[in-house]
């Protein structure tokens, strides 16, 4: 399966759902604890990523990048995600992990992910415990991304960079690690059949006064890397 960022005015929500993976088992809750994740990364199972390379639709030269999967240690682990600003040149307005292109001064992918998370949302390194990395994921826009998985100690104060980030929110990890919430889509674009996953999440009480709901439409490369994380945890 491949993932991509299509050319506007494409709306991924408008593409019918081909199927939902509710035939697959979700990751057991006892595997979604800080200690269980520490153990899993210290003693990883044999597994293979389900998605790793998107079909290219850009002539952009490949570039190294890294993203942080920040798992906040609340009563139930949550994943910290961002909504990208609409003025960005790539993946604008999409739900994403904090992260970005590797700089020459970065020591490694972990350094890139931590630096970008601090620059984008103000997440300080002293709140972060890096667990490990997942296999690289190559986007259709030419970024070779290393996902860095980390635990985040509560008590942090975020300061999102408004030039890059429109919003920051959290989603329960258990929700994302349940394939009953993984939806499959496909469309033919430029003569190429492209397929992707979506994981829509309805966030309650986000309107003024704590009422109402808002859909967080997680899809594309973000959903692809989350699916790989699911495969890693369920192996």
What structural category characterises the helix and strand content? alpha+beta
Distance between the termini: 19 Å
CATH topology of the domain at 28-175 and 219-234: Nucleoside Triphosphate Pyrophosphohydrolase
Helix-residue proportion: 10-25%
Instruction: Give the CATH class of the domain at 28-175 and 219-234.
Output: Alpha Beta
Low-confidence regions = 1-8, 88-92
Rough shape? globular
For the record, the CATH architecture of the domain at 28-175 and 219-234 stands as Alpha-Beta Complex
Average pLDDT figure: 88
Characterization of this structure:
There is one protein chain. The protein starts with 18 loop residues before the first strand and ends with a helix. Strand 7 and strand 8 form a beta hairpin. With 235 residues, the protein is α+β, with helices and mostly antiparallel strands. Strands 2, 3, 4, 5, 6, 7, 8 and 9 form an eight-stranded mixed sheet that branches. A three-stranded antiparallel sheet has the order 1-10-11. Helices cover 17% and strands 31% of the residues. The longest helix has 15 residues. It has a domain of 164 residues: Alpha-Beta Complex (Nucleoside Triphosphate Pyrophosphohydrolase).
């Amino acid at each position: 399966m491949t993932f991509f960022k299509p050319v506007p005015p494409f709306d991924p929500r408008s593409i019918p759902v081909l199927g939902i993976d509710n035939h697959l088992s979700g990751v057991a809750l006892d595997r979604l604890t800080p200690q269980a994740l520490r153990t899993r990364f210290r003693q990883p199972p044999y597994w293979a990523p389900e998605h790793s390379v998107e079909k290219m639709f850009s002539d952009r030269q490949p570039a190294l990048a890294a993203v942080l999967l920040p798992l906040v240690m609340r009563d139930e682990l949550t994943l910290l995600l961002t909504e990208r600003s609409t003025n960005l040149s790539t993946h604008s307005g999409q739900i994403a992990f904090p992260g970005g292109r590797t700089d020459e001064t970065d020591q490694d992918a972990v350094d890139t992910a931590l630096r970008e998370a601090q620059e984008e949302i103000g997440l300080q390194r002293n709140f972060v415990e890096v667990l490990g990395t997942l296999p690289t994921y190559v986007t259709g826009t030419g970024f070779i991304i290393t996902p860095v998985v980390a635990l985040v100690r509560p008590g942090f104060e975020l300061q999102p960079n408004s030039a890059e980030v429109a919003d920051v929110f959290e989603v329960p990890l258990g929700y994302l690690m349940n394939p009953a919430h993984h939806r499959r889509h496909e469309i033919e674009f430029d003569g190429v059949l492209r397929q992707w996953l979506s994981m829509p999440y309805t966030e309650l009480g986000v309107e003024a006064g704590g009422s109402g709901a808002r859909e967080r439409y997680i899809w594309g490369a973000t959903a692809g890397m989350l699916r790989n994380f699911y495969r890693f945890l369920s192996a």
